[in-house]
Here is the input.
Amino acid sequence: MYKKIVFLISIILLLGLIISQSYQELIDQKKDFSVSENSEIDINGKKYVVIEGAEVRFNEKGFQFSVSREGTIIIDGNDFFIVGSEDKPAQFIFDTEGKLTTGTTFTTKEGAFTLRGYSLPLPENSEVEYLKYTISINVPPNTEINPSISDPKKTEGILEIKTKEKGFLKITGGNFQVIDAENNPKETNLYFANDNGKLRVYFTDKTAAFMNDKGEIDFTIVNPNHGTQNPEIDLVFDDRISYSKPYVLATKTRIGSFARKGNGPIISIGPGNRIDLGGNLEGGNDLSQDRTVFFQGRNGFVILNRGETDKIPTLQMKGDSLYNPDRESFYIGKVKSGSKLYHKPGSLIEGVNHGEGTVALRVLAYDDKGKKTPHELYVNNENEYRIFSEDTAKKLMDPFSYIIEEVTNRAEKIFSPGVAINQLSQERKQQLIQLGNEDRKDLIKNYLKPGGIAALEKRLDELYHDVLGNSAVSASVQVLTKEKNSLGSGTIVGYNEGKVYVLTAAHVVNEEEDQENIEIYLQSLQDPGKSTKLDKEPGIPGKIVAYSERLGVKGLIAENLDKRDLALLELTPDSFQMEELKRRGYVQIAPPEFGVNEGDRAVFVGCPQGNFYVRGCRITEIMDIIGTDTLEINSEPYKGQSGGGLFMDGKLIGVVQSGRPASTKYPNEIGGFANLESIHKFLDENGYSFLYKFIIFILFRKS
Here is the structure.
């Protein structure tokens, strides 16, 4: 039996040798032939393994294999896994030296291929075509493609990979997708080339994008050189910064636009970005068509970096580069001492759709020598920005640090390098701003740092519910005198027999001139931060029913106890205005037994220039006398807040009368208020004790 097996094997080998020898004779004579079974053949000293059914043809330019079935052929030691058919045979075209050349076309089975020195895996049904200087490969959409250079000396021409249909190519830097102007997907083309032994990757389309694995836009790219003689934009996936061609940087933690000379790609950051720019509390992202970030490297670079732990991302700029949050522009300009970051209203990046808003970001600028310029730009989620000097910016090193900036109409903005503070809602930020500085530090130290945003928000809720109450802001009003056109504030403190009462400071109104020339404006329901005067609604008429003039010299308080700087206004609203008043409620004046002590936390409310303003504070002094400025706090009220209320536990405990800013002589801010004893005495003497002594049966309620 053994002898029979050995004999059969010998016969098979002999037949194979005879067949190969017969093929070799045909090859030497350059005669066409068909391969009857899988065979190894030698053409011009090179070995080829050809599958059964292959047609071998010769011509003056070389030879070719035509394969109409599935199988593996081996060319120059490289496997080609192919799918051929009678209708669409695989064609392998060789020159006289045995190299694959123009006209080679085949459809692949899944496998690893080496093509003109490029090594890459290809999925099943990829279509390969050899052109004169390019290998063009059509792959199914959403295919992972990561070519490499197997031998730089043997790598020739360009490798073009494109999707058969609309879809992305998954490469080292992410999911690359060619898109149209409306961000709709198109067929994707990418090019690969040998750049001194390193793999170069580039595209030439007008617009493209990187997508995350959820299908969200990571960032989009506009090619400013599209349609020119040099339309190529390179894609770089390491941290190279010195590079000769315009390119996009895309690493795990950085996105950049580079152009050593001329214009680099325009980049727009999307809601699915890898940097987490625009991330919000809900785990989503605030970037959208309405909130945008664009940048472009020009004769330099712009790099967006993922933020350090607990910090917002940082943008670095050099050269003539541009940064456009919303419709504003920032660029680097030269000054005598070097370079400086400048702001210009309007967009300097054209041809893209800017939104009306943006997200929090820190921006650093560098001069031509790579030295950081002595200032930093901070942008917050409220679309507000501020350029700080280097010394001021040093205060913003810690992720829980912040700077509060006063702006027009006494509104304030908060800037911080911290993710947590920037992710607070605008309402929460205003609550944080309105607290005194020591209180803010206490909140951040004891709540934000250990417990995060949720702990801070919960504590802010507790503070504002306990200290301010539900109606303190809605019951606060703007006071306008017609004759003087004077603006002040006040508080709705009660209702009796169809009349509404507002407590304010005497110096806001004039007893003789303004007796019946007063108008009251309420908190706007359309924009709770503003008064109805800014909504151009008519004021509610009022008159002075009780008045105690202001004491001019604080040192004479004891001798002028009847001068308390208080006024009580009586409103006469029409039926519509009465309903509006009821929707806003009123605040009860605290009774005599209500305990107010030095060190207690309180909140004062006013309406300077028609903007409602709430500020947290601590009571620093309470005088046991009746008069003007008989209660002091550690914060200065603004002009226009005079007459506004001081609140604790939802009750009114004081009325704004004066303020003194911090100075060299007086390092601490001071706010002067009428204390409860002065308010009670004033109401008692004028017959309005019921506003604090008795229960008011007809209550105002918000509907």
Q: What stands out?
A: The two ends are 104 Å apart (CA to CA). Helices lie at 2-28, 390-393, 419-423, 426-434, 437-468, 575-584, 676-685, 690-693. The first strand starts at residue 33 and ends at 34.
